[in-house]
Amino acid sequence: MCVQAISNPRSEDDQEKAWQAVCPLVNQLRNYYEFSIALEAVVVDLLSVLCSDEMTSRQHLEMQQSLFKQFAEILDFTLKFDDLKMTNPAIQNDFSYYRRTLSRMRMAGGDDIDKDLDVNNDMANRMSLFYAHATPMLRMLSDNTTKFVSQNKDLPVENTTDCLSTMACICRVMIENPNYRSKFSSEETVLFCLRVMVGAIILYDHVHPVGAFAKSSGINIKSSIKVLRDEHPGKVEGLLNALR
After folding, report:
1. Does residue 116 sit within a domain?
2. Where found (predicted)?
3. pTM listed for this prediction
4. How far apart, in whole angstroms, are the C-alpha atoms of residue 15 and residue 6?
């Protein structure tokens, strides 16, 4: 996801070149937006199984490791995507330029111009609402986790919070315990665990009645933050900001 900043084109030739340059980049943004919609259904399906009332969270983890891994990979992707989005202001600049240009084109040529575009006015409006959030993927994930809890009244909220706190705890222990960490094959594995830990904490904070930062929380926030701060600042600053 690398969107280049577009300067302010003045001549018609410059405007055409800028439009041709920005269209493929906006198409990439559309792909990510549509991927977020696909993730919504996947997240609900995963939570339905991982937070069911048939077993405890640890029993789920032992019996359904592959599903937990899938959920962890979604959390990892979410945190990586949002960090890139926050550190690349050109994304919003390019998309704003695209919408301004599209608006001028529709004023000059009518609504029919939409038929020839991969990202028409309606799609651009929906994408704008998505990318307006500082962390759009995390917002989608937290909203759907909260929706899952509210729509499953027969399922104790503790099932979901226990699932999330268990994931966060396991990731933290794997990083802070030298016996586990020595088995990691690369630094990326450490960052994977950190992103999953932070993602699980944030989701827990959204659905738990008192949040993740209360003393009665099932997550050891102090130890979790210490694990983050013990890493190289340049690698975890985005994760600390997400917790803030």
Report:
1. yes
2. Membrane
3. 0.86
4. 10
pLDDT at 216: 84
> For 12-24, what is each residue's pLDDT tens digit?
788 888 888 999 9
Indicate the DSSP class of residue 214.
Answer: S
Query: In this structure, is residue 6 part of a structural domain?
Result: no
Residue 7 within a domain:
no
Containing domain of residue 232, as a range? 12-243
Residue 34 has which token pair? 């549509």
Q: How many domains does the chain have?
A: 1
Tokens standing for residue 100: 């301004």
Q: What is the DSSP string of 7-36?
A: ----SHHHHHHHHHHHHHHHHHHHHHHHHH
User: Do you know the residue count of the chain?
Assistant: 244
User: CA 138, CA 126: separation in Å to the nearest integer?
Assistant: 17
Residue type, 223: S
- Please state, as a whole number, how many other Cβ atoms lie within 10 Å of the Cβ of residue 144: 19
Query: Residue ranges of the chain with pLDDT lower than 50?
Result: 1-7
* Tokens 């960090």 belong to residue: 83
Any domain includes 129: yes
